[in-house]
Specification:
Length: about 260
């Protein structure tokens, strides 16, 4: 069993150096008046605003609303992406049948789908979740297809020589080999899910981080805008860390391919 690599202290320091320097320069620029505080509030002002709206429960309410939508949309989009990607990866006929449709629909930006979903489903929760589902679907689909197609033919040949059943080959050979690529798709899908929920909430919502950012902009509260932006970044960062930890736990055998 491979030993878990310990991260050197110097590596940790270097990794956080750029964000710290950015915040320091930002704070100094705001204090010295080098930037317009109405456009770029001081870091301390943003922090104080975050504490204030957290204490009132305003931030947690918006965050929980967004998290609920992201979880529902991500699970739906990831499930569809893995299921359809598996079919397209295994079957040449299914791939030929759907590839042109995928090539036609995938380049359409998610912001263009929002008015269509509103037209079809109104401005309720289903519209927002559908946007997130579609945004998650594409990266998971493409990476699942790529993962299944890139399975080493030698592994498949050995399985056939050993006269393994097709079900066994799929579950014991193909899927384990495709998992690194699928996890990459899941991580990209989670990033897309957050982008989509913010876009959807900016247009059609009464609660959520996207709505909070839009409302703060309209009411000239730049500090709240930046609080919302930073919260999205932090939540996305922690979710990505969790997905990487899960990937490392499930793919211990793939020490070279597990994301770091």
């Amino acid at each position: 069993m491979a030993k878990k690599r310990k991260i050197p202290v110097t590596e940790i320091i270097v990794s956080i150096l750029a964000p710290v320097l950015l915040l320091v320069i930002w704070q100094i620029s705001a204090q010295k008046g080098w930037v317009n505080k109405a456009l770029l509030p001081a870091v301390t002002r943003i922090f104080d605003t975050a504490v204030g709206i957290s204490e009132t429960g305003k931030l947690s309410g918006h965050l929980l609303a967004s998290l609920s939508r992201v979880v529902k949309g991500f699970l739906a989009g990831a499930s569809l992406g893995i299921a359809i990607g598996t079919l397209m990866g295994f079957s040449k006929w299914v791939n030929h049948f759907l590839s042109s449709l995928v090539s036609l629909l995938r380049p359409i930006p998610m912001i263009a789908w929002i008015p269509i979903f509103i037209l079809w489903m109104g401005i309720g929760e289903l519209t927002k979740i559908s946007v997130i589902t579609l945004g998650t679907f594409w990266p998971v689909l493409l990476n699942t297809i790529q993962g299944i197609r890139s399975v080493d033919n030698k592994l498949l040949e050995v399985a056939k020589v050993l006269k393994k059943k097709r079900k066994t080959i799929v579950l014991k050979v193909v899927f384990p080999a495709a998992l690194p690529s699928i996890f990459t798709g899941l991580r990209l899908g989670m990033g897309a899910a957050w982008s989509c929920v913010v876009a959807a909430e900016m247009i059609a919502a009464r609660q959520g981080i996207g709505f909070m950012i839009t409302y703060a902009r309209e009411t000239a509260k730049p500090a709240e805008v930046f609080v919302g932006v930073f919260v999205i970044g932090l939540i996305g960062f922690f979710i990505d860390v969790l997905l990487r930890r899960l990937e490392s736990h499930l793919l211990k055998w793939n020490t070279a391919g597990v994301s770091k």
